[in-house]
Design goal:
The protein is about 65% helix and about 0% strand. With about 220 residues, the chain is mainly α.
């Protein structure tokens, strides 16, 4: 029995049932041991959740300092966060919404703050940008992981057709006008749109209004 095995078992439970399904008893049952024996290796359920957070963030493989322009830095960090979170969606949700309190979990936070400060953004703006970034990530992830599956009983085209018809006939003129677009939910495209909009807004706050090495959007 090790802390790593306990964290791995917890991650499986979270993937299957969400954080609400996690308990020391459930973890112990999965590992085939008594719940009290877990305390020889972890302090509490909170300690296990810290371990899950460390596991997710450690696999982002972020450098301690970003190179190149801050625009590309924002893109790199955005897609790295998203890809790491989507490998374990329910655990990724936990990471983004949990107060980070371990060195491993704080490392990507430090990377982003350092990037903003290195490019001349003041300290208050760097913190505001970090929090806006996290809020965008949380909202995007929650919407994506809780979206209904488009192909449970029918194929995607049929679902979109039915959704378009419903929106068109719901009695709301603006909704009806954009119904064919509103019925389609491309999470990759929506995420890219949000990242680029964030970058465009930040350019107005940048110490140097020039693109500073911007090379265009990166692919997720």
């Amino acid at each position: 029995m090790t802390r790593e095995r306990i964290v791995a078992a917890a991650l499986v439970i979270i993937d299957e049932e969400g954080v609400d399904g996690l308990s020391m008893r459930r973890i112990a049952a999965r590992l085939g041991v008594q719940a009290m024996s877990l305390y020889n290796h972890v302090q509490s359920k909170a300690d296990i959740l810290d371990g899950v957070t460390e596991y997710i963030t450690d696999r982002m493989r972020m450098p301690t300092r970003m190179t190149g322009g801050w625009e590309d830095g924002i893109r790199t960090l955005s897609y790295a966060f998203r890809q790491a979170a989507l490998r374990h969606p329910r655990a990724g949700e936990l990471v983004l919404m949990r107060q980070l309190s371990t060195p491993t979990a704080l490392a990507p936070v430090d990377t982003m703050l350092a990037m903003m400060l290195d490019h001349g953004f003041d300290e208050a703006t760097a913190v505001h940008v970090l929090r806006l970034f996290v809020s965008f990530q949380v909202g995007s992830l929650l919407r994506e992981i809780h979206a209904s599956s488009p192909s449970q009983d029918r194929d995607r085209a049929e679902v979109q057709k039915a959704r378009t018809a419903y929106l068109s006939e719901a009695g709301f003129p603006a909704v009806a006008k954009v119904a064919p677009i509103l019925a389609v939910n491309d999470h990759d495209a929506e995420f890219t749109f949000g990242v680029e909009l964030l970058i465009e807004a930040l350019r107005k706050l940048a110490p140097d209004r020039k693109a500073d090495g911007d090379t265009g959007p990166l692919k997720p």
